[in-house]
Amino acid sequence: MRTEDRPARSITSFQHPDDVFEALFQSIQGGEKHVRPPIVLTPDSPFLQFIEVGYALRACLEDRSRRDYLIQRLRPHLSAIIGTLPASLLPHGMLPRTAPPPGFRPLEQISDAEVRAWLAEDGSLIYGEFQRYELDNYFEAIAPLIPPGGVMVDLGSGLGKVVMSAALAFPFQRCIGVELMGYRHAMAIERLHVLLALARQGLAALPSPLTPDTPLQLPFGGPAHGSHLLDLAARIAFIEADMFKVDVRGASLVFMYSTCFGPLMDALGDKLAREMREGALVSTTTYALKHPAFRLLHYFPAGTIAWTSVMLYQRVGPLATLAPATAQAAYEPDPEAWEERVRRDLAALDGAA
Ligand SMILES: C[S@@+](CC[C@H](N)C(=O)[O-])C[C@H]1O[C@@H](n2cnc3c(N)ncnc32)[C@H](O)[C@@H]1O
């Protein structure tokens, strides 16, 4: 297993398809540190309810006299909070800074169910991705299980790194990314344009032009043909949508960097069990897919493929014959320890203000 990125081979000219592959992989930049712009507050924003509840929670955080109330409202939902204070409530969070429009409710008028749903969404919008060497490890691990053809779907595809890399690495017919946040989707499209322009440039510069039938050796996934690179634009798609509203019936591999999806895992397991066909694969990070429709094929503990654990599952059995999934709490921090941390974090925020 790699523990760091391999040294980048400098590509000064395109002599061989391997040079094109190498240049294309190198062009897919890491997005972990990208700037998170605030969510735009418009009347038709799909995030309107998220912003309303967020404003209500943040108002309590900013008013010292209402902090006990904030803690009291968050406390029943610790299993849905990633970290100590929800990310969107922190100064660098993505909630807009503009004044709330008339009609937004205070926290007192917002139900526990809404707070819980907000916390789950807040966590799921946190960004993270595999480092390049982790992605290489992951691809090496799954390569023997990827037959030619098939469709790979990344649910929550962020800036598109896994989708574009998978389209290069493996003989998938199509790789599709589904991303909820408009600006991340737009960044993925921008990055795809860069990738495709480079692909065109590299292919045009090859001394012997690639034809659709030219035999190719894929960097991870065995043999393929020239069409693998020539059709790259048609083989990659990004969709701006809620992953719960996108049907993944045709997917042969669903990838999820699910490290921040803890509270969503049961709902995701249920969705995937209903939609995916027998034999199809699902991979998750950090959180298990505890649905009986999925058999664990491989478990890679934290610190092997990646810093966190990676699981690979296969869809088994017809849904009708399966026992219903049992709900699982993702994790449940000790409320006293959590409250102590929250108060410490609030004091630190006051100090920094
Ligand atoms: C941890 S990032 C992973 C990005 C990408 N899969 C990767 O590994 O490079 C998770 C992404 O899921 C997106 N997300 C969260 N909830 C979503 C939903 N309901 N539908 C679609 N995308 C969602 C977030 O905005 C975020 O960009």
TrEMBL record:
The family database entries (InterPro entries) matched by this protein are listed as: DOT1_dom, H3-K79_meTrfase, SAM-dependent_MTases_sf
GO terms (molecular function) for this protein are: histone H3K79 trimethyltransferase activity
According to the UniProt entry, what is the EC number of this protein?
A: 2.1.1.360
Keywords assigned by UniProt? Chromatin regulator
In this entry, which stretches build a coiled coil?
none
Q: Its domain of life?
A: Bacteria
Among Pfam families, the record links this protein to: DOT1
Q: Where is the DOT1 domain?
A: 125-193
Return one Gene Ontology term, BP aspect: regulation of cell cycle
Q: Which reaction does it catalyse?
A: L-lysyl(79)-[histone H3] + 3 S-adenosyl-L-methionine = N(6),N(6),N(6)-trimethyl-L-lysyl(79)-[histone H3] + 3 S-adenosyl-L-homocysteine + 3 H(+)
**Protein known as:** Histone-lysine N-methyltransferase, H3 lysine-79 specific
Supply the source organism for this entry: Rugamonas rivuli
